[in-house]
Design brief:
LRR_dom_sf; 7% strand; single chain; Distal membrane arm assembly component 2 like; disordered N terminus
Length: 127
């Protein structure tokens, strides 16, 4: 089968061969996050999610910023004085910056990485 239209200069086979060459060249560039190595892409994406934003820590406080980081990476957070685990980034509690202190973290099957641990240095996690 050929591509629709009689004025096409390239046949479908030519287009596929051209696309194949272009995609091969792109796959050879390992610095790009969209390269063919999906493990590289997910590693890059996880690194982006784990990046520490010191301005955000200053603006919203250490516990809120750490909560945002943990939830963004798929972890769960429980606050001092609360029974339920916070699992949804979009339903983070609001209020005074020092009202919600992290008491416990469940990072099972999350994508937290050591580059994000600076969030924990600034947070005052309760025991």
């Amino acid at each position: 089968m050929c591509c629709a239209g009689s004025e096409q200069r390239l046949t479908c086979a030519d287009q596929m061969m051209l696309f194949g060459k272009v995609s091969q060249q792109l796959c050879g560039i390992k610095k790009l996050p969209w390269s063919c190595d999906s493990r590289y892409f997910w590693g890059w994406l996880n690194a982006v999610f784990n990046k520490v934003d010191y301005d955000r820590i200053r603006d919203v406080g250490p516990d809120r910023a750490a909560s945002e980081w943990l939830l963004r990476c798929g972890a769960m957070v429980r606050y001092h004085g609360q029974e339920r685990w916070q699992m949804d980034y979009n339903h983070l509690p609001t209020g005074p910056l020092d009202k919600y202190k992290i008491q416990a973290i469940d990072a099972t099957n999350s994508c937290i990485m050591s580059i994000g641990f600076d969030h924990m240095e600034t947070s005052n996690i309760c025991c």
